[in-house]
Structure formats: C-alpha cells, structure tokens
Amino acid sequence: MLTLKSPIVLCVLGFLLFVVGNKVSNAQAKFAVSGYIKDAATGEVLIGATVYVKGTTLGTSTNSYGFYSLNVPKGSFTLVYRFIGYNDAEEQLTLSSDTPINVELQPQSLQIDEVVISREKADANVTRSEMSSVRLEMKKIRQIPALMGEVDVIKAIQLLPGVTNAAEGSSGFSVRGGAMDHNLILLDEATVFNGSHLMGFFSVFNNDAIKDVKLYKGDMPASMGGRLASVLDIRMKEGNSKRFTATGGVGTLSSRLTLEGPIVKDKCSYMLSGRRTYIDLFFPLFKNDDLQSSTLFFYDLNAKINYTLNQNNRIFVSGYFGRDMFGSGEMGFGFGNQTFTARWNHIFGNKLFMNATFIRSNYNYLLESDSNDANAFKWDSKMTETGLKLDFSLSANSHHSLKFGLNSSYFSFSPGIVKGTSDDSFIKYWAIPKNYALEHGVYAMDEFKIDRFILKYGLRLSVFQNLGKARSLILDDNYKVVGFNDYKSGEVYNTYVTPEPRLGLIFLLNDKSSIKASYSHSAQYIQQASNSQAGNPLDVWFSASPNIKPQVADQWGIGYFRNFFDNTLEASVETYYKKMDHLIDFKDFASLLLNDEMEADIRAGKGHSYGLELYARFARSNFDGWVSYTYSRTFRETPGVNLGNRYRATYDKPHNLTFVLSYSFNNRTSLSANWQLATGQAYSQPVARVEYEGVIVPVYSDRNGSRFPTYHRLDLSLTVKSKRNLSRRWQGEWNFSVINAYNRKNPWTIMFLQDDEDPTRTYAETVYFPMIPSITYNFKF
Amino acid sequence: MTSSHLYIFKNILFALFAFSMFACSSEIDVSLNSTDPKIVVYGAITTDTLAHRVEITQTADFFSNSPAKVISGAALSITDGVNLFPLTESPSEPGVYYTAPDVYGLIGKTYTLTADNVLLQGAPEAKTLIAQSTIPDLDPNYQTDYLDSINVLYNEQWEGWYVNAWATEPADQKNFYMFKVYINDVLYSDSLNNIIISDDKLFNGNAISGAGVYFIEDADTLKAGYKVTLEMCVVSEDHYYFMFESQTSSHPQIPLFSPPPANARTNISNGAIGYFSAYAILRTSYYVKQRDVDIKNRLIGKRSRLQ
Lengths: 781, 307
Description:
- By secondary structure, chain A is mainly β.
- Chain A has five helices and 51 strands.
- Chain A is globular.
- The termini of chain A are far apart.
- The model of chain A is unreliable at about 1-5, about 25 and about 110-120 (pLDDT under 50).
- Chain B has helices at about 5-20, 140-145, 235-250, 290-305, and strands at about 25-30, 40-45, 55-60, 75-80, 85-90, 95-100, 110-120, 125-135, 145-155, 160-170, 175-185, 185, 195-200, 205-215, 225-235, 275-285.
- In chain B, the strands form two sheets. In chain B, strands 2, 3, 4, 5, 6, 7, 8, 11, 12, 13, 15 and 16 form a twelve-stranded mixed β-sheet that branches. A three-stranded antiparallel β-sheet of chain B has the order 9-10-14.
- The interface between A and B is large, with 92 and 86 residues.
C-alpha cells in the first residue's frame, strides 16, 4: 500500500503547489488567446498542432478537438502556429482582452502521401510534458509496407518500441509485456472490443477514414483508465468542410471509397467511408468444392458528421459498423463491432473547454448451422457498453493547465445463448446468464510549469459495480463451485474502488534535451476470456466480480530525450518497470467457450515487465523514418500454472531492432522499407512422448521454456504517383508492396506432428507466411 | 453442439485461414530437451464381459521414432472391494495385461487397479502404482432406456457420413459421453483423434432425434449392407476431462485457438502418467441401406454437374 499512498501524498502536495503557483502568477495581468487550428485545404482540425509565442518557451498544443488556449501577458507579440507537414503561420497581436483566434495552416503540398518535412513544434519531443506516447501521422502510416496493400494502423504501431505482435501477422498486440486485452482501443472515444478482421490478420480501421492515431504505452494521463497497458486513441476524419472530395483504392484484397464534403461550407461537413474485401468473389473460379460453397469477406463502414454552431459550440456524430462473414455449406459465422459517438464541444469564456460525449459500443458474433435437422442451432454472444463522458480542460494561467472530468459506463454481457432452430434440434435452449456492470471514473490533473520544471500530477478514482439481475458463483478454496448467490434486478451486489494516482516530472536540461519521469497506477475491470496466444473472434469479454478482483498495474518510467541536427533527429532512451497483480490467467486446458462456470477456471497471478527502449526518429526533406532497439522482458507467476513457477509470457521477446525508412527519389516516386530483427517467440516444447489410442501425445515441461528461431523480416513498398496535372483534380498512385521480401520462414507456429505413413515417427513442422506481394491503386479527386 | 461440430468448425476456420493467407508449412529441425523416463499406464474396466486390458509402457524422447518400450513382469489386479480380478501378462503382447474373459464391471462401483513390481528400465527399484475409477451410477434400465437407434446420412459439405442417434438424455444427472464407431465389427475409432467426447451441458434431459453424434470422414467407407455400430460409453467426469486434455495435447498448436500446452491429468499414483478408467457401454447397430448410398450418389452427382 505504501506505493499507492506515497503518490497520493504527492498529488495533494501538487494541488497545494497549484494554489501557491496561482497566487504568484496572478500578480501579472494575463489574457487568453484561444481557438481552433485547422487544415486550410480540408477544414479538418489539427490534433497536436502547436502554438507558441515567438522568442519564448511559452506555448501549448491543440487537444483532440483541435482547440488550444494559451495565457499570455498583456502587450505585443507574435504567435507561431505549426504542425507537421504544414507551413507555419504567424499572427501579430497586441492584447488587451481575451481573444479568440482560429488559424488555418496550408499543407506543404496537396499531393497525397507527401513526404513529411517539418515536425510538430520543432523541439516537441523534448519539451512535451508526456513520455511513453507516440503519435503517428496517417501520412507516415500509409508509407509503411502493408500486407496485401491494406494500410493498417495496428501493424504500424507494432513497429514502435515496446509494442510486439501477438503472433506473426496478427493484429493483436502487447504493449510493454501486457496482455492483448490490456489495450484500450478507442475509435472516436468509443471502445472497439475486437480490433481485427479475418481471424486477426487485418485491423478494423480503414485508413482512409482515420485522421489521427496516438498510442499511450505508459505515463497514462488521469483522463484515461480502464486498461493496464495502453490506450490506442484513434480519431476519424471529420470530413472536408471546404469542398467535396473522394478518396479510394482498389487493391488485391479489398476496395475502398471515402466521400467527404461540406454540407454548409466551413460549418457542417460529413465523411462517409466504406471498405469491402472480395476474395470470396473469386471462389467460384476454384475447382475446390468447399470453396465454391463458401463465403468469406469483411466490410467496414465509417460515417461522421459535424456541425459548428458558432465559435463556442460544435457537435459531432460518428459511427462505425463492421462485420466479418464466413460461411461454408450449412455453417455460418459472423462477427463485428458497432460504435456510435455523439459529442458536443463547448467553450466557456475562451479558457474552459468542455467535451461531452455519449458513446455506445457493441461487439457480437453469431454462429449457426441451418441444416434444418436435429443438428440445427444458433449460437450468439453479445456485449454492449453505453457511456457518458464529460471532460474539461482549463488553461488557468501560464503556469497551470488543468483537466478534470468524469465518465460512467453501463455494460451488458450476454456471453452465449444457444438455441435449437429446427423442431428436431437436440439443443433446445441453453444460455449463460446475462450480467451487468457499471464503471465510473472521476479525475483531475494539473500540469504545473515553473522555470525548467514541469510537474504533472493527477488522480483518477475508478469505481466498478456489479449489477443485478445476476447469479454469482460461490467458489471454495479449490475453485469448486459450491453454490450460487442470486441478486435482484438493479441491485448493486459488489463494488470496487481504486484510486489511481498519476505523476510526471519533466526537467528541461536545455533547449535540446530533457529528462522525464513518470508513475502511474491503473486498474482494469473488464477483460477478455482468451487462453490462446493470438485470440479469436469467439473470445468473450467478462467483468470483475466478487470472485475476480480488478487487475492492477504500477508502472514507473524514466527517460532522456534529446534532439540533434536542428531538431531533424529526435532521440529518446526510456526505461520502465511494470508490476501487475491479480492478472487473469486460466487453469490448464480451460475451455472458455460456452463456459457457464468460467470463474472457476480463472487463476489470478502476478506479472512484471521491464525494458529499455532506444528510439531515434528523423525527418529530412527526402528521407525519414525511425530506428529503434528494445530490450524487454516479461514474466508471469500464477498458482496452479506451470507448477506455480515463474514463466516467460508469450510476448517475452528480449531483443528487438526495427528500421522503418522511407526515401523519396523525386516528387513522384518513393520507396519504403522496414526490417525487424528480434528474439524468437517463447513457446513450450515437448520433452517426451507417450502413445495413447494410436496417437503420440507430447509430454511438456516448462511453459514457454524454448524459443522460435531468431525472427527477421524485410518489407518493401514502392509508390509511384501519376504525373501531376494541375488542370484536373484526379490524383492517382500505384503502390507495390512485398511483405517478407526475402521469404524468411518465420514461424507462425511450430507444430509437433505424427507421421501419417510411419506412425512411430514424429517431426516438427513450421507454418509461416512466405513472401506476399500486392498491388494497390489509390486515387483522390 | 457436440464436440464433433466444434471440431469440424475449427477445421473449416483453419482451412479458410490457410487459404486466405497463403500460409506455407515445412518440416524443420528442432532440438528438444529430454527428461527422465516415466511409467505410463493405460487401462480400463467396462460393463462388457470380456478380458479387460491394461498396458504398461514408458515415456520416450519425443523424437525417439520407435515404438514405446513396454514394461513386463509387473503384477496387476483390479478389485471392486469385494472381488479381486488378477491380470496376467499376454505372452504375445509384452507389457499388456488382461483379466480373465468373464470379468465385467457394474454401474456405480469403484474399481481399484494395483500394479506391483513395475520396473522402469534403468530404475534402481520397482514401484507399486495404484489407480481408482468409478463407473457412473446410472438408472438400472440404462441399457434399454438411454440409446434407442441410429442411422447414417451422407453430408455433402464435409464429404463424409454423419452417424445420427435417437436417444433420451437422462435429466437427473450430469453425464459425460464417449462415442466410438465400429464398421462391420471392426473398430473405426482406432485413434484418440476420432473418438468423440461430449458432456450433456447443452442438451441435458432432451429427447435426441437424429442428432449427429459421430462423423465418418470418408465418403467411400460405407457401402450398402455394411453394419455400423455406435458404442456410447458413459464415463466419469474425470475420465471425460482426461480424454479432452489428451486430445487437446495431441493437437498441434494453432495460435488462434490452442490453449497453452500442458499435460493431461492422470489418476495413476507414484509419479506415473496415464489413466485407468471404468465406464458403462451401450451399443446399437444399423445396416447401411441402398437408399443411404443413393442419397450420397445423388448429392455427389449434383455437385459434379455444378462444376
């Protein structure tokens, strides 16, 4: 408890400092300059754009809605507005009152996929009051070679230090040794419960509809919570408010089309985006019977509309709908997410920014066999989150910026209902009882700047409640179900409260370098029942309960940040240590599907991770990218698993060296490459065998005691743009990608098999992805 | 959903996945650690009247690539607490021990297997192993009341034959089943991976009228006049999970589905592995009709015309 209490004490101290700081700074008259920073070509607000007073260190950046508010002393000065890939704008001012200023920045080029030249505020890497977070611009993500040409946000973040994929090719990812379900994936603030399509090989995010991607892998702001490892905050485009545009592409796997444009110029715009795969349309061409009667496709629809009522009020409504469909003969399987977000941004008196959000998010799947005989059944599973959020940010004065807010979500889980669908069905009706929960959070945080120090301190208080109607299992010490407790509808029968302190300290050594340190405590109440390595769409989410304590984590980080060569090279060294408790694990062979007594199969364990992340990102006029090296370890210890001994988590890959590079030969042609070299994944090997009923059954010893061969892979992508013709709006480009260019046999899995011909012979076989080329044509008009 | 459905379903997803991603596979050299050998005991007593079998072998290195070494010369007996049934080692099959041919188990009774003088090759001294198993306590009329009849039906999608059962699932208890099939009195379910197991969770107490309980994965296996026998074994909960765990262990690791590798439970004492089971067996047979084969041929014909 000491570790918990001491940060709380620090937070209280921080608030005292806030009061003192306020007294000091009030001595001088200050005014607020506030407004939105937008893209001059599309009218999209720019997230993370910076504004600062020329010749000083006084500055701020726009929030997730493109809004900034800066306190400046009375008098004359010049404001510089800056954003990556845009020309700077300057504004000369003489202030005598609070002043709203909206700015539109000109993109450096209107061409798609333009190579990034300038960065955020040049020294943002050093002066930013956060660590362990990365914002990736869509322009950069689009340059990265993509599987089947499907530009993929999640595959791009897997190249960042501290992030590893759950399995080769999978969109599941682990951040700093966390589990896949320790990542909160938000799309316009709504939770996406399953981020993948097609058994995990593609993510649900259609890049044409996405504007901004930010990953927090530590130093979590107090405004965020509910997951132990990371938050992946993805924002959709608002839609061009200047003119109608269409963006699209035709690829090997899918086609995409995005339409956007103003409804009322500069006031109201929309964005509508769709993607569908068409691999199944070619099935009839195959001579394989199974394929001829099969369906296999996925689609995504994104839509957003926003309306600016006036300078102080803006409304957004957005939604996502995606689904995968598999079918083969009588069997059908569909799964997908739906999210809905409605937001209202309001500005109180130039300084206080409010965002009120209503969210609804749903994940469900349906499996059926419509054979019309005794075998006919329908199995569905569904979960829904409905929530309200209220966030405020206030630039109190030039020393303090405050954020506070609250949120509340209602969860409903229906883990599985199986119904017979014909009169003869041998299953009539069977269901796991539905259950309900509430999760609330209230937070306040302040960023206190004084001289070369920035102190960030905040407290989040999270509250979780199980809600009736419910049947809760009573377990004995051996995890045996010995009875039930039944609760009435609406009855709160279990409550957990967790104070989650968050702290950060930045010391600017000089204008090129800084040291940053952070601590966060976080709790997770909602998790996924998955005991396979990469997960599958049938894995259900479940909540904490009287039998399942909230998972908690403490993370400490410290880093050194330095920029070189006139800020064209940003470098950082970060180390972290993370301690996790009440981690969800499952007993050996736990069968998690349609398990109405799953709580009896859960084993709570401990875990810890630590690591060192070296990261250098550079941007020159024709050459940019990053290089990173990560050393990281992660271990688990769970009673009843691996004989209670500590073991390597599957995501324990100590060494990882990554290059992500792009080079432009000229205005039309660019080449991108990534290369990764990493320790092979941990896995369990058999140490012996027995013969039983004609089958050789492996005998295993230590869990994850061995490793796959060393991993390395090169991906390449060449983009050739059509000749620029100023007289027409159509812009096209060809993209040629090759994944695994030199055909390295990196195992997806290693299987230990028995020879069909000679049943006494056993052998090992690797399943891998060979070189996969693809061609995509992208266009915009 | 019997496990046969889930099994088929997972295979389809895997096939679709493999197709869609152009995954490749190839044999690789892996060097494995070895461990000290352990004694392995597999055996059963059932409600059938016959010479019940217990086999004692030992574990081998995973890539040993030769039949398991047997352990001869042990002294075995099975008792229900009242009667003692000694086992004798078969002269033709070393390491395999049989009871007398007139032995049968009774529902609700607990059987104890004792194996004395079990000497692992290279071990300093012999061990005594004990295992216990109980035949589920069923309704006395279980032989006639549970399983009524079966038939077979060709399934064009999976290109094989469903064995459909008509039965009444007893409502008053949790039951665990193991299904095996004989074709013309020859065991078709000759491998751990084509023995079907199922609990009654999803259909407890339901009247079963023609549900697929077994799947014969080969279109040409059955011909008109063939005798198909379904053996429905009612097993203990522990035995069911032992089967489930053994099957899971023997399946290759697929990152999407497979739980972390682990070793199946054992009820053999003294550090040995394996399982001694006791269970009840019910049977019913069906003679494949010309009509069944005609249905198959019609379905196949329709499909080839489509191509």
